[in-house]
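stage 2 :: seqdesign
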């Protein structure tokens, strides 16, 4: 095999980012399983443990990963923090969870961040809405005054609550650039583009048709990665993996030169879109 070509010294650093609603590892493959296998949302199972291992394999090759519908350590996950487990398996040095629905031993439901790089600041935010339990996990990489801000979120089903939550996130990142917002938005790219507050924020929606739901026959693109003007999108796609009721979305971005030093070794080939993953 010929040696792998190295990028030129002046090539821009590129990050591979991934967003995935992992459905606490349940791995639904058809609508009837919401009923027939719904018990896996409350009780541990070997199928979920096996599926979690496949999710860990999927993460390898990315730099910053935002996960939704994770369990931080309850009965259904065998009292194991799923984000810690995935980070260890895939060889990542940093992880963080935000629990948004604390049901004690029954469920520790929330958001997860896994990264090859250590953020200098991480904060957890509750989001408004008709029902509680929605949040945003914000991490900043680099250094104050020269940082990449990353927000991981899972928005509400209802349009009214979702609009409030988008407005809250826009307020959180106001004045920051570059910014990445990734998560399950429960709405299409067109609905995001039409949101007036999001439009004024400058955050851009990747307009390509990237259907992610349901995973076994994707028709709706409801999982998104938004970028600010300070980031160049090199490519984006959906990964062909039925490991949840959603499919993961990935994006490769070019960083501004001033941020390159904060992400050593980030330049790498893009992960293949629509590739099998277990």
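stage 2 :: out
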């Amino acid at each position: 095999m010929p040696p792998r070509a190295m990028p030129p010294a002046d090539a821009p650093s590129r990050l591979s980012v991934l967003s995935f609603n992992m459905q606490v590892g349940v791995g639904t493959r058809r609508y009837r399983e919401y009923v027939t296998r719904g018990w896996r949302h409350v009780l541990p199972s070997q199928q979920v443990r096996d599926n979690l291992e496949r999710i860990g394999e999927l993460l390898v090759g990315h730099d910053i990963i935002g996960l939704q519908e994770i369990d931080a350590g309850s009965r259904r996950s065998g009292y194991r923090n799923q984000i810690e487990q995935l980070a260890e398996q895939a060889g990542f040095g940093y992880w963080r969870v935000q629990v948004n629905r604390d049901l004690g031993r029954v469920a520790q439901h929330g958001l997860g961040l896994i990264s090859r790089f250590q953020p200098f600041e991480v904060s957890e935010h509750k989001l408004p809405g008709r029902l509680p339990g929605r949040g945003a996990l914000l991490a900043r990489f680099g250094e104050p005054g020269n940082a990449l801000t990353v927000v991981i979120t899972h928005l509400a089903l209802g349009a009214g609550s979702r609009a409030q939550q988008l407005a809250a996130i826009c307020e959180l990142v106001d004045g920051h650039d570059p910014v990445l917002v990734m998560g399950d938005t429960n709405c299409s790219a067109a609905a995001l583009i039409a949101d007036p507050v999001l439009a004024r924020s400058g955050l851009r929606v990747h307009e390509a048709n990237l259907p992610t739901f349901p995973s076994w026959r994707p028709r709706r693109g409801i999982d998104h990665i938004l970028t600010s003007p300070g980031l160049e999108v090199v490519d984006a796609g959906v990964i062909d993996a039925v490991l949840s009721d959603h499919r993961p979305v990935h994006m490769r971005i070019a960083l501004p030169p001033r941020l390159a030093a904060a992400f050593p070794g980030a330049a790498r080939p893009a992960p293949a879109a629509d590739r099998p993953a277990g």
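stage 3 :: structure notes
- The helical segments are 33-36, 46-59, 82-90, 159-173, 189-194, 196-201.
- The chain is about 20% helix and 30% strand.
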